[in-house]
Each structure stands twice: as C-alpha cells, then as structure tokens.
Amino acid sequence: MSVLAFPSRTGGCLRGVEDFPILSRRIRNKPLVYLDNAATTQKPEVVIEAESLYYRESNANIHRGVHWLSQRATDLYDEGRESVRRLLNAARSDEIVFTRGTTEAINLVAYSWGCSQLRAGDEVLITAMEHHSNIVPWQLVCEQTGALLRVVPVSDCGELDLEAFEALLGPRTRMFAVAHVSNALGTVNPLPWLIERAHAAGARVLVDGAQAVAHMPVDVRALGCDFYAFSGHKLYGPTGIGALYGRAELLATMPPWQGGGDMIRTVSFERTTYAPPPQRFEAGTPNIAGVVGLAAAIGYVEHLGLDKIAAHEQALLAHATEAVGAIDGVRLIGTAAHKSGILSFTVDGIHPHDLGTILDTQGIAIRAGHHCAMPLMTRLGIPGTARASFALYNDENDIAALVAAIRKAQHMFNGGGQP
Amino acid sequence: MSGIDAHLRELYQEVIFDHNRQPRNFHAMPDADRVAEGYNPLCGDQLTVYLRVADGKVEDVSFVGHGCAISKASASLMTEAVKGRPVEEAEALFRDFHALLTGTPPEGRDFGKLEVLTGVREFPARVKCATLAWHTLHNALTGEHDPARTE
To answer: Is the ipTM of this complex over 0.95?
Structure first.
C-alpha cells in the first residue's frame, strides 16, 4: 500500500503503510489489501498512541474536579472541539457538538430540531441515495409530528435528479437532508447549488458528511449548510466519536434531546435550566479519549493536507475505474461525473457475497451487499454490489490485486470451476 | 496450493456451481399447501419455499428467490434431499444438517450430496447463507408465519 510519501510526526519520511500498524499484517497468509474504507478507515499510530497516552497520563472526568488531572482532561477535550472547528472551518467552536458518530448527530437534529419545529403537513426532503441513518431518523420524527417525507429521485448513473429536486422544494419544505458523498456509489452531490436552492425555499439543510471529511477539504461556511454531521472512525480516528456542526443561532433555539449531567445550568425538582450549546447536547460523561484520538486524526490529515489526499484518491479512482471497468462482465454501478474514491460494481454470474468471500481468501477486504442503502439498491434494480473504497494509504498495487482476484473469481464461476 | 485455496475449493465445489447455475425444483408451486418465506435483510438473500404434504410425506417441494451461490445451491440440494421423505425425516435432516454446519455432526449420518456444503465451516460468515433455506423449510413444515432468518 501507499505511493504517498509524507513526513511523519518524527520528521522522517514514512510511507502510509508504516504509519498504520494494521496494514503490515497478513490476512489468510496474504498481505492485507484493505479496500473497505467507506465502512471504516484504519488508524495511524499517532491516533492509537494519543488514546493510549490519554489514559496513561491525563485521564479524569471533565468539567468537574478542581484537581489538576480534571483540568488537563477538560483542556484536551476543548482542544478537540477546536480541532473539529478548524477541520470544518466553522466560525466558532461552540457550534461543534460531540456525538457518537454521524448517526447520533442526525438523530440529534431530527429529535431536537425536528420535534420542536415540524408540524403536521410540513415536509422533510431527503434523497434516494441516502444511507439508512439519514432516512430512518426522519421517518421516526415524521411519524411523531405528522410531517411528510419526500424523496429526490436518482438517475441510472447515480446522480440526483436536480429538476425533480427543484420541483419537490416548496413552501412546506422545512428540512433538506442530503449526503455530501453517497456511501454506496461515491457520487459527490453539488452541495452549494442544492443548499442555495433549499435556503431560497426557506428550508434548513443538514449534510451527512460521513463519506466526505476524510477525502476532501470541507468548509461549512462556504457551503452555507445549517448542520453538518460526520464520524471520527471514517477519518482515521476512533470508533464511538463524531460531531455535529450546527449554526450557532439554530443550536441556541433547540431544546435538549437527552437529559443528564453536564447539560444543565441549575437543577431543582420544580425547574431545571439548561446549559448553552454545545453542552446542552452533551449529556453525561462524553467519550473523552475518543475526542483526543479524533483530534490526533484531524492533526494527521491536516499535516498531510486534505487537498493532497483528495488528489491522490482521485487519481486512484480514475485508475481503478479504468482497470476494473475493463474486465469483461463487470458492470460499474454509479458513474456520476463527480465522484469520490468509491467503486461499486457487479460481476455477471457472481453474487457480491461470493465475490467478497473469494476476495477475502486473497487477503482483500471489500464490502458486499446493500451498503445500508436498500432504497437505492431497489431503485437501481440490484440486490447489492461489491464496493471497493479508497483511503490515503491505498495505491496501484491494491488495484492490481483487486483486478487479479476478480479475474480469479470469474475463472472459478464461469470458467474452469476450480481456483 | 495454499491452505486457504484448498478451503476455497472445498467451499465452491463443482456441485455448488452446478446447482447455482441450474437450481433444481426452482419454481413456484400453485397448489402448494404450505409456503414460507426466508429473508436475510443484511445480505439481501430472499427465498420462498413451497411444500405439498400428503400422508405425512413431503410429496413435492420447490423454491424461488435470489441469493448467493451458497444459498441457492443449498436450497436446490435441500429440495432434492427432502422430496418424498416423511415429514419427521425432513425435520430430522434439518436438525442434523444444521448441526453438521454449526457444531458437531451426528455420528454415522450419511448426508450424501449435502456434504458439499460443509465447506462453509471454514467461512463462518457464510454459514447463514447455507442454512437459510433449511430454516425456511422448517418454518413451512411447522406452520411458522414469520419469515425465517439466519443472520
């Protein structure tokens, strides 16, 4: 893995594979070729070390103790929030709410904003390419409030139908919730255009950025979105930590959605008053070590440069699209003009799960199935796809291994039968 | 050949390919007296098993649906294995076959062609593919209305 050579924290010139301990291990006695990055990315040594070091040297609860360690943990937690602010170019760090991940961030907006703002007959607009986590929370809140869920259709090549989008936008549209990048197809949606139109119609806009933040620079102020959600674990950070960006004036008007410690100002049995954002939305002891690990991950990608990572992955995507697309019997699923490093495909006569097993025996990790986007698969008329998704440590050798393994599977299924 | 390639060859034997390409008893059954659905939502495998039972015997059995080679071949082989058998024998075969793939196979039992499916034991993530049709058959035999699932 890795053609990207970049300076490490020690100042030398390390390759990606050496920054990521797991990439040097063997799977089924073959070198690991990890192409399941849209599910989760591997973690660099700096992230693993940061979490470990936090527990070794700085662990305490935040916002409570008068003691030195508590202050130290609080400082690290606050620095983590500042790291996320910088990553997204938000105006203020109190516009960043820590969550367990993208799913919880979307649920937070759906329940806090949605339940307090949506009325019967209002409309929530999503798209046919959303991950289940940007569908189901809205369905649940629509059921509770009587709001209607509307869906922007997707074309055969996996692009949003922009005419239909404009036709669906109306005075009743209160929220437009859309993926920055489709997790199943890699389509990059034209956010500035979409957000401008949605705002002109009076709707708020939530962006599911789970598949974007690790792969391109993101600027929430340039986008103009109202909410932006992402997960740390798809950004080379730990699992169980993510964040929601929300414009300050919106967060200020939103009620709490979970109660507990840390989110209150005063509590009495007669009346409780709530802390201002972001604490209002962070009930209970948060994932402090996760925040520390996430901050390390953000530092890591910033050091490499998200524009350089994006350029590397775009080159890899172009190469993979050509190499995999050239195999007889392979059909690429999702051929939008503007894509991120995700290659979804089917192979004639081979079910994605069989392909996944055969690739696994070659040490290649891909995802097979519906990718938590069942409505999209139904729209495209397929039960699922095989999906290879790229990260900064992948290179042409990984694509060559993928191509060879697909050919091997074809030989088994369509040719001689035996591997 | 490396160990893993040998396991792969055991998983995808020619019999599996044959039944995947040309599944036996692969059709709906208009006069079925028992029907059950099987569905694994995570992997998308879906099938319907049809039965006609007379005098305590599985007089006819068929299936339709879609899924991976393992689930399709397993369903096809299953229909061949239980057709004409008494219901109790079909149920016993379900239990024994399940044990064969997931635990300790009963001693002395001859599974015939079904032996080709034992290759999934080296691929735990695929055991659910091989057992879906059988759980669906079980539901059809016992009159269970909820769809069977093995994931």
So the answer is: no
